[in-house]
Amino acid sequence: MGVNFRRQKAMGDEISTASMSDIAFLLLIFFLVSTIFNQEQGLPMTLPGQASETARISQKNILNIDVQANNLVYLDDVRFGVTQIENEIRRRIVANPKLIVQLRVHPEAFYGTMVDVLDEVQLAEAKKISIKGLEVVR
Amino acid sequence: MATGSKFQRKSNVGQRIPTSSMADIAFLLLVFFMVTTIFKLEDGLPVEMPKAEAGIQIPRERVSHIWIDRLGNISINDKLMHPEQIEGVIYKKLVENPNLIVAFNTDKQTPFDIVDEVMEELKQANATRVSFTADFERRGS
Question: Considering the entire predicted model, what is its pTM?
């Protein structure tokens, strides 16, 4: 064979790097879009401070929500389902704008139930909320 | 195809896109992630958060977390502690940051008496701004 193949000069290892910037930007956009900044959500409350005196409040301005040891919820001694609480509280606040919602939780009740009830109370936009442990008669 | 005439074919269409800026991009990316990466500050305790709808975003800088798990172990800043010690620890934090918000990261099955004890301690330390952490879930009542 007399044909002379024109040898290609050994090209200095040049892989086309034109697409690398594409990859860089794709990666950047991927992370931009998928980065989640870990933000917690919670139900805010203001506790009474050390200095606060126990104010005297008329009984009729207090709504007692009791969470018993079996995690059942009673509004003024009437059994309620957790999801019904919001509407009931709204009704009561309309009837008595000075209403204070007092949430009493039995020491053996679950914290989760308290949060459920507090959630409902805050959804009902009650502004005066108090949380305390239910006195247990032994 | 032309007959006869020889086209000088350019065999090399200039493949060289100037890639000199790639180093810039690489370093920009690097600096961006270096600056925005938040290292997990606390491990806390394994806790199953309750769900709530009425929650609000709490600004991260002002929060101290109190972790209480199902068994009643209390952890602040990754240190297990007894309820009586809480007042001192929180008081110190309050001195550094008067706007402190204390977040309860508490398991939903924790018995309430522990939470009540911790709340009493917080009242004594005068840390009145409190938040009950809960994952968002629409309740639909």
Answer: 0.72
